[in-house]
Amino acid sequence: MTAPPSEETALGASPIDVHRHTMSVPSLRRYLEIKAHHLLCERDWASIRVIGAYDRDCVASANEKNDKLFNWQRPTAEADGDCLVIKCFPGPDYVRHYALIIATYLSLAGRYHGQVGYELPGERTCAAAVERLEVDPSGDDLVVLGWGLGHFTDPGAWVAGHGYAWQRAEHHGRRVLYLGYQHSIWGDVAGRVVSRLAALSARRVAYIGKVGALDPAIAPNTCLATGDTSILDDAPVRWRNAFAGLADSHPDIRHGVHVTSPSILLEDARWLAGQAGRLFVDPEIGHMGRAAACSGIEFGFLHVVSNNLAAAYPADLSNERLSHVIECRARLLDRIHEIIRLRLEAIPRYAPAGGTSP
Where among 123, 147, 176 does a domain terminate? Predict the structure, then answer.
């Protein structure tokens, strides 16, 4: 299958300065190695082209860890003569992020010579990919999206869709829809997913995931993060928080201003110095909050703090599969599940026949 024509001008990707990054060079190297497609090592490609295209019919990465329910599919690859085409799920942030991964990975191996380029997918391509989501959340009190969903759900009850799966549960008469994606919904893709859910009549969306801490005192894998504000494109985005008031009554939950970063590779020491007063960072939350606010629905994130960009801790993004990290996160997922149930109990009963939704 050949790559689709680009909707944008091709751009070049250059490696970052690894010595200025907030991750140590050994940790960053490990992070890049587990993300890079194995065909990058097969030969010295004359050119490498990163595009937005969800294509599972070409070569999947040998680094995919399909022992997870969700977020296990990596970008795929297809050889076109001396060019290697890398296909990411369509989203400008994801395409650029992965191009930076490749350029930096090759640079650390002494094999970068300006051969990495990327093409940002246009809005029509991005929207069409997300519109493959077909599920009816109109009768659900809460849609829970993201990471760790297998911890909350019946393993045999998932209904498969195009790159995603869903199932429903009921708690004290309230319905919750769990929705997970096999591929990454990195950055702006996650905002389009919220917009799609709102168009399908969702009323509340909760995002469960992982964030980096920007306060050196917050140790990874020890607490949860939430909030109602993110800095996106240098401007604050605010939303109606589905988890409002949690930090006041639960001491293991930190509430603070979040910053939306399009790529982990861009989070260097200079970037960090400009984040005073902000507690958390990830690529998705600001996009999701903005989409929810524009659609007039509630949104909330409740994330495990997975790493710290402002201080060195043993746990970081390169060693997330260590047994003690998994154990700590399992306990935090138990807390998240408990809080989801508490939130459901607080939602007024929905009256579909002539009533109004809360």
Answer: 123
